[in-house]
Amino acid sequence: xxxxxxxxxxxxxxxxxxxxxxxxxxxxxxxxxxxxxxxxxxxxxxxxxxxxxxxxxxxxxxxxxxxxxxxxxxxxxxxxxxxxxxxxxxxxxxxxxxxx
Length: 100
Known about the structure:
Number of strands: 5
CATH class: Alpha Beta
Order of helices and strands: HEEHEHEE
CATH topology: Aminopeptidase
Radius of gyration: 14 Å
Largest sheet: 5 strands, mixed
Low-confidence stretches: none
Oligomer: single chain
CATH architecture: 3-Layer(aba) Sandwich
Strand order of the largest sheet: 1-2-3-5-4
Number of domains: 1
Distance between the termini: 30 Å
């Protein structure tokens, strides 16, 4: 069995009432095989241990991963445009998964 860090990794941290998922990477050869579902489950477990109510993430409006997040139960809660300097902006959606 492969270790999670050999297949990809999530990066997350507590922020306000939610766990913020800043990265969710899965190597190309492991995509489409159900591994993407295990990674958010790991983050959900960590969020519950921290007594967080949800998981939130930003995703670029043109990223095809939006469909994956929606299949996992994430709901778009707002648009966000962040100035990252030198005339560049991150044009994202913010998604949230409420925890039970």
